[in-house]
Amino acid sequence: MILNKNDTKTNNKYGKPLHDKYLRYCTRCCMPSSNEGMQFDELGICLACRAQEEKMHINWKKREATLKNILEEYKNKSGSNYDCIIPISGGKDSVFQLHVLTKVYGMKPLAVTFNHNWYSEIGKYNLENALEKLGVDHIMFTPSKKLVKKLFVKSFYKIGDSCWHCHAGVGAFPLQIAVKFNIPLLIWGESVCEVSGRANFTDKVMKFDRDYFTKVSAKLYPEQMIDDEITKKDLHPFELPSYEDIEKVGVVGLHLGDYLFWDDERQMEYIKKEYDWKEEHRPGHYKGFKGNECKFETLHDHMKFVKRGFGRGTDQASADVRAGLLTREEGFEISKKYDQQRPKYLDEFLEMANITEDQYKMVLKAMREGKFKDSDD
Question: Quick one: fold of 60-258?
């Protein structure tokens, strides 16, 4: 929905960002300087915008040829019944990955899922439906919900994000399976260059390695989560294999988005048509296709909004501004409308953490940095 210039639902003037007094914004899209790892060039344009420009000039046929060579190399490796591991959540990216690897390139993958314990009904359907229709072998690990609840709250206080167990598990479990089953190739979907503002397609700096997900999202290693209630044994599912084991198997990871032109909306429309993949619109989300497999995804986004001043609405609106589907001013209006919406499961989290909503906001605001720390919003 595009708001008009007379809209009074926000306190800001039309087309202006919510935290204009405290944060610097990309001069081309709606992304603020508080986005982790954010970089601006001499024109004030963010790296994510520059990366989208680069996409228009990349020889994608050449990159796909490189991908084909890599896949053929791992198809012919001996020692495993599988050509690769595809970590799959049932979200739009992982379902599209599974389609591309099996139907386009003829790979025999092992699908691997770390179950965060918070699957939505649509998320369960999308995962089970994709696995059945694409006919792949699948391994899922589900940690104790009692442990997950403890980690959910502790993560909130430690990193200002309740999803440490998911970030860490998604990184560690596929690596554990790679080592145990001797399957060296892991294949992910969207490139970090797409939206993060931390890398570009020419000089990519976020190379996949053993510690990739710790650096990008988890922030803390399992031993840093030990306390009087959480033991080292409890955290074994989140442990990364040793560097020696990784090297012995020759584990490598790649993102399809570094080799194929990535268009998540077009891909989402394709899997909806071909595999009956389903969307779900939620508070805080401008579109219904991101993160809908987890019921607490909107809480994760709201924590980011309180802590960093932007949420999923800004992420999605900025992508549309870069694609030329919205003006920057329209993007800011969408950001303000959706970022501030209260998440559906906030009350459940507050009860779990035994805190009030004001206390929740105080914890997150204390993690702000720079001039934004002075904001009362």
Answer: Rossmann fold (3.40.50)
